[in-house]
Design brief:
heterodimer, A: Rossmann fold, Rossmann fold, B: mainly alpha, two-stranded antiparallel sheet, about 70% helix
């Protein structure tokens, strides 16, 4: 290697390798206990007469593992509970766990494996919108069934997906209304640079216009961005009434630590985050987040008898120090909702389950949720919460009851034309 | 004006963080020529060491002495990472000297193993580390111009480390031996320097510096298994732009990327800013392929 170009070659090699590294962490992950179990019990349909195979497809390695492993845990807990109670249609559920490895191509490949090789009755999985969009064609062409546990940007309603997380009108829209009423009209938009924050903010901008609010800043940072001082300077310069935060992953830690360092408090400039739940709060540190607002449908502190039971069971299974949060709860709900639909249909056949699913109610930890048969989203209550000193979230406002899901925001005059935004 | 000064400070602060993170690499890559893709994971090791030290302080010592954890953490994160670096050099790296592509792949493999190990031990969610309370405030000069103590502390720490490395390399017998081995291994060996021992020690020092930087990073960013991947590109860029093998080069590299990057980000957006700084680096390397401060020597180019 000639020395002249050595530096340049090294630099490009490092770049390439580290970009690959984002997804490459993947390959080393050890397969899950459950996977081993099913693989030894050869996967043909004949063998599984007394059991029903269900797929679980989350990132267990790579950058998204931070969030998705807990959702897998909740789904396995629900499966275990259902099995103890006698299973579905008298058969035990047999989870097949696959690792999407935070890589969309891997997600697609594993989805194909689950549907075609394992012939699972349904799949619980995905977190990022990108991974959902990557597996969507696979589920549609093979008529599979995916239960998606995370709030998302809306503008989608596939007949092969049930959306158990919030649609935009069950999180973002009411959150902006709440902030407009309680904090003021100047909003600063901050998000990670990918599909969810950009689509969410295109909704917020339309809504802000309708409410007579002013968007005083809009910033996106690459995933894994570590320095927010410049953006915080911009925030201090334009002095918004609140920051609407759609940052995802590690960036939130850097942002909130540096926000506090800059001497900013929620009393001065409040923030509202839609991707920080109890689990992320623990990683950021309660002292940095105390007093900041978040919007979800469920908190660990949500006061229902079902939630008390759920939190106890989750901690008993996985450890006292673990916390539950919205996507974890949605993953848990998804399994019960599917089981109820199968019981009602009397079969695991996808078309008949889908037919039966509309109108099914489940007394979930967050309160009663109901499947909307038309768009396959859930009726859910909406809650604004404030992070407390222990890193848990206290509810400060909620809707009176479950809100009807409206993924395309058709019931809002200002949202016309938004469905084309992608 | 306030905004300008604030941004200038931000730029300098980002530079100091970069310098801190890149200093270890300036030793292992710059001096030794090992393309160490696991450098980021040494940062991670330091960060987790700080986390463990903090946990122990909370569990076993009275709350009054909590703030002292940062001194213990700084020392221990250096030590733990240095020992790990020493072991790695002995077991793996020493078999790969002079084989750039191989060492790149092997160290990348090591980085994946370390990441997954961290995930198995600490779990994949981020862990929280609280900065000592005397660093939590900021020095409010006027209006929005306020300088966080953490950032000032990291700046001082970076300067301190820089002078430490400078002193070690240019003012001690050990440093002279290191430089001799790096410049002409055979001649140094002929003169009685134990080159194998020097290699291990140098790699350990570089790794230790990374660990120390990792400890400082816990105060401003996320601590998780993927911490290293967030910094690896910027640190390599710092060393390459500055000129491998030159400490002063790394300082200028960090300044160039830190101040330039924040300025671009201020006038455009974070994503575009990143693109612009990469463009500048590519252009710079076109004209100065060995970086700003290329080390001149009389050896024939290989």
């Amino acid at each position: 290697m000639k020395k002249r170009t050595f530096g340049a070659i090294v630099l490009s090699a490092v770049l390439a390798a580290s970009l690959a590294g984002c997804s490459g962490g993947a390959m080393t992950e050890i397969t899950d206990k459950e996977t081993n179990k099913t693989e030894t019990a050869s996967g043909s349909e004949e063998d599984s007469k007394d059991s029903i195979k269900v797929g679980i497809l989350h990132s267990l390695s790579g950058t998204m593992a931070i969030s998705e492993t807990s959702v897998r845990d909740a789904e396995l807990l629900a499966i275990k509970e259902i099995n103890v109670a006698g299973g579905v249609l008298g058969k035990q559920l047999e989870p097949v766990v696959e690792d999407g490895a935070s890589d969309n191509a891997t997600f697609k490949e594993k989805a194909e494996k689950l549907l075609l090789n394992d012939k699972v009755a349904t799949v619980f999985g995905c977190w990022t919108s990108a991974s959902r969009k990557a597996v969507l064609p696979t589920f549609e062409s093979n008529n599979g069934l995916l239960w998606y546990p995370v709030q998302y940007e809306g503008m989608e309603a596939s007949k092969n997906i049930f959306y158990v997380g919030a649609a935009p009108n069950q999180q973002i829209v009411p959150a902006i209304e709440y902030m407009n009423e309680n904090y003021g009209k100047k909003v600063f938009l901050l998000g990670s640079d990918y599909v969810f924050p950009r689509t969410a903010n295109s909704i917020v901008k339309k809504q802000a216009e309708d409410l007579g609010m002013e968007v005083v800043g809009e910033e996106y940072t690459p995933m894994g961005h570590t320095d927010y001082t410049t953006i915080i300077s911009k925030i201090q310069d334009v002095k918004p009434d609140f920051v609407f935060n759609t940052l995802n992953g590690d960036s939130n830690v850097a942002f909130f630590k540096q926000y506090k360092d800059a001497g900013l408090t929620p009393d001065e400039i409040q923030t509202l985050s839609v991707s920080i739940a109890e689990e992320e709060a623990a990683g950021i540190g309660a002292s940095y987040l105390e007093g900041h607002l978040v919007a979800w449908n469920y908190y660990q502190t949500t006061d229902t008898p079902e939630n008390k039971k759920f939190v106890e069971a989750y901690k008993a299974e996985y450890g006292e120090e673990r916390v539950t949060d919205d996507p974890i709860e949605a993953g848990y709900d998804a399994v019960y909702l599917w089981a109820a639909a199968v019981e009602k249909a009397g079969t695991t056949d996808v078309d008949q389950v889908r037919e039966a699913a509309g109108g099914i109610e489940f007394k979930a930890p967050e309160g009663t949720i109901t499947i909307d048969g038309e768009n396959q989203h859930m009726y859910k209550p909406v809650r604004i919460g404030m992070v407390n000193g222990e890193g848990l979230i206290d509810e400060v406002w909620s809707t009176d009851g479950p809100v009807k899901p409206d993924p395309y925001l058709e019931s809002y005059e200002w949202a016309k034309g938004l469905s084309n935004v992608q | 004006m306030e905004l300008f000064l604030m941004q200038l400070f931000n730029g300098i602060s980002v530079s100091s963080i970069l310098l801190m993170a890149a200093l270890g690499l300036a030793v292992t890559f710059g001096l030794m020529g090992v393309i160490n893709m696991a450098h980021g994971e040494f940062l991670m090791v330091g960060a987790y060491t700080a986390y463990i030290v903090q946990k122990l302080f909370i569990a076993y010592l009275p709350a009054g002495v909590f703030d002292a954890y940062c001194i213990v953490a700084i020392l221990l994160s250096f030590l733990v990472a240095a020992v790990l670096g020493f072991i790695l050099e002995r077991l793996v790296i020493r078999r790969l000297y002079g084989r750039a592509a191989d060492s790149l792949l092997v160290t990348w493999g090591i980085s994946l193993i370390l990441q997954q190990a961290a995930r198995s031990i600490f779990g994949s969610p981020n862990v929280g580390v609280k900065a000592p309370s005397f660093l939590e405030k900021s020095l409010r000069i006027h209006g929005m111009l306020s300088l966080p103590y953490k950032r000032i502390f990291i700046l001082i720490l970076a300067v301190f480390c820089l002078f430490g490395v400078y002193w070690l390399m240019y003012r001690t017998r050990q440093g002279r031996n290191i430089r001799a081995v790096m410049q002409n291994r055979d001649m140094a060996a002929a003169l009685g320097v134990n080159t194998g021992r020097i290699d291990s020690a140098t790699f350990a020092i570089g790794s230790g510096l990374a660990g120390l930087a990792g400890c400082a990073l816990t105060w401003i960013g996320a601590i998780g298994p993927t911490l290293g991947t967030n910094y690896i590109v910027d640190t390599f860029m710092t060393v390459v732009v500055g000129g491998a093998g030159s400490l002063l080069g790394s300082v200028f590299g960090a300044g160039f990327i830190g101040i330039g990057g924040t300025a671009f980000e201020f006038f455009t957006t974070a994503s575009i800013g990143k693109v612009l700084i990469f463009l500048c680096v590519i252009l710079l390397l076109q004209f100065r392929p060995k970086g700003i401060f290329a080390v001149k020597n009389r050896a024939l180019e290989d």
